[in-house]
Amino acid sequence: MSETFLPVSKMPVLDGFFRGIRLFSAMFRAFACGRTRLAFLSGDGFFSGRPIREGVVMQEEMMGFGVCRVRRGALAVIGCLFLAGISWAGDYSDGMRFYQGMDYENAFSAFRRAAEKGNAAAQSALGAMYYNGEGTGEDEAMAAHWYLKAAEHGRMDAQFALAEMYEAGEGVRQDLKKAAFWYKKAAEQGHLLAQTNLGILYMEGRGVKRDDAKAVALLTKPARQGVALAQTNLAMLYASGRGVKANTHKALEWYRKAASQGEADAQFLLGNMYEDGTGVEKNLLKAAAWYRQAAEQGNAEAQNNLGRLYMEGGDFEGHEDEAFVWFQRAADQGYAEAQTNLGVLYAYGLGVDQDVDKAVYWYARAAEKGQPEGAFFLAEAYYRGEGVERNDKLAVKWYEFAAKNGVPESQDRLGLMYTNGLGVRQDYAKAVYWFRKAARQGYAESQNNLGVLHARGLGVEQNYARAIAWYRKAIAQNLPQAQFNLGTMYLQGHGVKKDIRMARQWFMKAAEQGLPEAEKSLERLPKDGESIDTDLST
């Protein structure tokens, strides 16, 4: 058989309405609502390249482990003062009176006089006023200076505030070990937020050696005392079985306690549990309700998940406009998955007027942040020349980025680009490499395409048995191109005994799915005893 140029299908046009598909990690689950006409490869099958499923990235931000953190900021003066319960006298007493009367300039002066005389409570209050810019200009370095003096006198409020400043690098060089040191000092005196933050450091292994058991011990007391941030992180430990035996019911209990106090991260994670049916009966309406509470507080993950639910139909059918609102809010915060989702809504005019330029804008924003699906859709735009000038080299650049990050559709596309030499030098071996990556993820089109390469001996040694094996993997997913290709193998007796009846059976299966080549080949199939035309493509 003489070598010929290997034609492949055009890249698919994304058209029609779609339902969103829940994603896990960074990978798609394929879901196509139709297929484009595919170019025929004479002899041993042809390549497939179905339309990317008519679905939005809609990536679900999963409940998987991630520490919830809230930057509380240095304590307010009143908070500092009432933590200690010391007697008021002289300048310090005057400072309190002025501060409560909102006369911050005189309060600052009085506290400064007392602080310079060594009054620890006044030193702590002065640190808070410098931090908050009350009665003086904001000055984090001076805030840290006075907090340190008070902390060294044993003031737990100042120790906590100083620890936060070391953790954030505010007014001092960031130093997580010093942050842990001062959190520990305050925690030992019973400061609940210090216990919480120290527990979080142990969870993260920041400034201290990671120790989940210590994290559990530190978080339990403030959680029982009603500290929502501690409750949320303790719930995470129970959910993941870190430092404690996994217990979804306890996780649910602590998430509920924190969520009822308005803790956005807990509300979001509680939504996850209801959506997935983890430790509770699956209930998408309750999931949406909790997502909404977190979303209204600005939680970008919850905004994205809420938008995704509105695109998935069912109880949320016909709410694309709501999906657009929440994707937009999350995208405006820089949340990459939502930026990709927003781009898809613009591309199809779902919940918003169709605007391919804006679609590309949002794909690019997501891709620049390293969001793989956004990179894939940006590559598609460059390949099709929609919203941007067509550019095969840029298409390859973004296909490759998404492919290296595990997106099977992009791995398949990159394989097709190498097969046809579009934007890159034609290289069948590299095509095999990328098709195999996607095929091993169960991507049917790449399984079929690997079959074609094995059948033709392009990039690999010709091997009909392997070709048939890959066709059958794709057939298990009901891919009509693979059904047709297997029929062609039976027709020609490649890797199997020549059998027109079996060829007709597979052509019929492909034709029933509307594959034009299969319909045409059925019409031209020889009857028993007739010679076989091995090229049924014309």
Characterise this structure:
The longest helix is centred in the first third of the chain and has 13 residues, at 104-116. This protein starts with 76 loop residues before the first helix and ends in a 14-residue tail after the last helix. The protein has 538 residues and is an all-alpha fold. Helix content is 60%, strand content 0%. Pfam families: Sel1. This is SEL1-like repeat protein. InterPro entries: Sel1-like, Sel1_AlgK, TPR-like_helical_dom_sf.
- Reading the helices and strands in chain order gives HHHHHHHHHHHHHHHHHHHHHHHHHH
Q: Write down the Rg.
A: 32 Å
Largest sheet, strands/sense/barrel:
none
- The structure class reads mainly alpha
| Number of helices, counting only DSSP H or I runs of 4 residues or more | 26
**Helix coverage percent:** 55-70%
Sequence stretches where pLDDT stays below 50 over 5 or more residues = 1-43, 50-58, 82-88, 534-538
Strand content: under 5%
Intertermini distance: 18 Å
Transmembrane segments: 73-90
Biased composition (Basic and acidic residues): 518-530
Protein name: SEL1-like repeat protein
Keywords: Membrane, Transmembrane, Transmembrane helix
